[in-house]
Amino acid sequence: MQLAPKNGPAPQGDTPGGERANILIVDDLPEKLLVFRTVLEELGQNLVMVRSGADALREILQREFAVIMLDVNMPGMDGFETATLIRNHRRSAHTPIIFITSYADEIQTARGYSLGAVDYILSPVVPEILRSKVGVFVSLYLMQRQVERQADARAAMMASDAARRLAEENDRRSAFLAGASQALNRSLDIQVAMQELVALLVPERAATALVWIADPELGRGSFAIAARTAGGGSATVAFGADLAPADAVMAALQEAATSRRVAWVADAAMPLRPGALGHPDGDLGEAALASVAAVPLLFGERVPGVLLVASAEDGAWMREADLTLVHEVATRAGAAFENARLYRNLQHEIVERQAAQQELQQASQRKDEFLAMLSHELRNPLASVHTAIEIIRRVADKHPKVTWALDLAGRQLRQITRLMEELLDVTRISQGKITLKCDPVDLRVVVAHSVETVHQLLESRRQVLGVAMPEAPIWMDADGARLTQVIANLLHNAAKYSPESTPIDLRVVVDDERVEITVRDEGMGIDEELLPRIFDLFAQGKRGLDRSQGGLGVGLTLARRLAEMHGGRIEVHSRGRNLGSEFRVTLPRRATLRASAPPGSLAGPARDGPPERILVVDDNVDAAQTLATMLEMEGHAIRTAGDGEEALEVAAQFQPAVVLLDIGLPRLDGYEVARRLRAGGGTGLLLVALTGYGQYEDRRAALDAGFDCHFVKPVEADSLLACIRAWRARAAAPTLGA
What we know:
This protein has 738 residues and is of the alpha/beta class. The strands form five sheets. It has a six-stranded mixed sheet with strand order 1-3-2-4-5-6, with helices on both faces. Helix 2 (53-62) packs parallel to helix 3 and helix 6 (190-201) packs antiparallel against helix 8 (320-395).
C-alpha cells in the first residue's frame, strides 16, 4: 500500500524544487508499519508500505526510491534475499537500504553490509534517529535529482543552440537553393539559364564560375563565365562560343563530362590567374585561384554540361559543405538544362509540325477545291447527256432494245450524278459550307422518300426491303432532305454490299427523347480491322478486280457527318466477313406532335398549253443546244445565248416569256443578267436558274437576284416542263377581286 503525506506544507529544506521522494518500507507486521508511518510522515515524502519481499520487488519494478527500509526477519522471503534481488535490478542497484531488526550479531551485520546496506537500526526504533537517518538519504536523493535536472537543462540548452544554428544554416541553404531553382527555371532559354547559373555563385560563393555545354542538342562548346572584379565587388558575366579557357581548364571540363564525377584542375597548372578561364574582361585583378573544381551537370544518363567553380588563393570556401552545396546547385542546373533541351526540341518539333500541318491543310484545300471544281465541271456534260437521253426517248421508236439502252444510260447517269453529289457534299461539309434547314418533319415521310430513292437498285438486285416503324406520324426537328440522304446512303450501302435476293431490314424505334433508325443486312460484313475507320473518307473494304460494288467510299462519311450535324451519331456492328452488318442512327427528337398537313405540289397541274418563247443561256454549247432541242420538241420557240451580254441583247430582240439562265457565265454572270432583266421591265418573266451550285446560300442568292426557280444540273426534263406549266397556270388564274 501507499500512504500519502498528511495535509499541510512539507518541510521546505527537505524537498528541493518541491519534488517528493519515494520511501519503500517493507515489514510483515502491520503495527510496525503503522509506527514507521507515524515517525516518517513528517518528512513530507511519499511512503510506500508493503508486507512482503515479493510486494517490495513489484514496487521497485514500477518506480524509483530514495531509500528502502527492510525488515530482516520476514516469513517466506527474508530481508537478505529481498535485498539480493533488489541489488540485481538495474534501477535499484545503488538505492540505500536500511535494515530494521530486533536482533543483530556480527555475522548478520556483515552479511547485511555485504549486500549494500547503509545502516542497521534496532527495533524498537528511536523516532528522531530514524527520521534523521532517512531524511539524510532523502535529501541526498533530491539534491542528486536537482543536479541531474540542471545538467539536463544545460545539455538541452546546448543542443537547442546547436540545433538553432543548424536550422539557421539549413534555412540559409534552403533559401539559396530555392532561389537557385527559381532563377534557373525562370526561362527555358539555355543562354539565360547559363548566365543565371554562374551569376548565382559569383561573387558571394566563388571568385569565378564557368559553365560549359557538353550536349550537342544544346549547342556543345558554348560558355558562360562570371568573375569577381578586381575590387571584389559585383561579378561581370560573359557568354559565347569563342571563349578560350586554358588547356588545363578544358581538360578538367572534359574529364568531368566523361567520368560524370568531380574533376580538379591539375596541380601542375596551379595557381591560375582569373584570365586563364577565358573571361574577356581584363579588369579581374591578379589574385591567383587556389582551387578549381569541375562539377558535371547530371540528369539521368545525360550530361548537359559542366559547372566549373574556383576560389581565391586566400579563400576558405571550398570546404566539403560548400562543395556539397555546389553539387546541389549542379543537380538543379542539370534539370533546368534538360528542360531547356526539351523546350528547344519541342520548339523545333512545333515548327516542323506546323509546316507539315500547313502543307497537309494546303493539300486538303487543293483536294477539296479540285473535288468541288470536278463536280461542278461535270454538271454541264452530264446535263447535256441527260437532255440528249430525254430527246432520244421522245423521238426514238419504242423498240425494246432502245428502251433498255435508254434505261441503262439513265441509271448510269443517275449513279454518276449521285457520286458527284456525294463528293461535293463531303467537300462542302469539310469547308463548313453546309448549313441545315431544320423544320418539323415527319420521319415516316423521310423514310418513304429514302426507300423511293433506292427502289430501282433494290429491284434490280431482287432484294427485299422490310420496313418496321410506328404507324403514327413521327415528328422531329430536322433537315428533311439531308436526313433522307443519311437513310438512303445506308440503304444504298446495304444493297450494294449484299448478295442478290437477300433481305434488308429497316427499323425505326421512337421515344420522347430520341429516334433510333437501324439498317441491317446479311451481306459481306465488315472486317474487324476496317470497323474503326469505316466512316473515314474513301475508306472501303477489300475488293476484287471487278469492283462489282462500285462507289468511292464517301457515302458513309457523308451520312455520319450529316447525322452529327443533327446532333446525333451513327454506330456500326458486324461479326466479321460474310456475317452481315448493322448500322444504327441515333438522333435527338426535339419536336412536338402536330397534325399532318397535305404536301403542296410545286409542279402544278400537268396540262398542255400554248407554246412559249424561251431563251436558253449557257456558255456550254452542247448543254444549250440539247436543252433547246428538247424544248423545241415540246413546241416552244427557242433562242440561245452563250454569255451574259449576249443574253441581254437577244432578250431585247426576242422578248422571251421564259429565260433558262446559267449562273456561271462569262462577261456577265447570271445574277447580274437576272437583275438587269427585272430592272428592264421584265417583271412578268419566268426566270429559271440552271446551275451547278446547289447550296442553300446559292438558292437564296438566286431568289434575291430575281429568279423564280432554281434547278441544279443535270435537271430532269419533266421537272423543268412542270415548272413552266405551273408558272403558266398561275399567270392564267384570275386574281383576287377580279
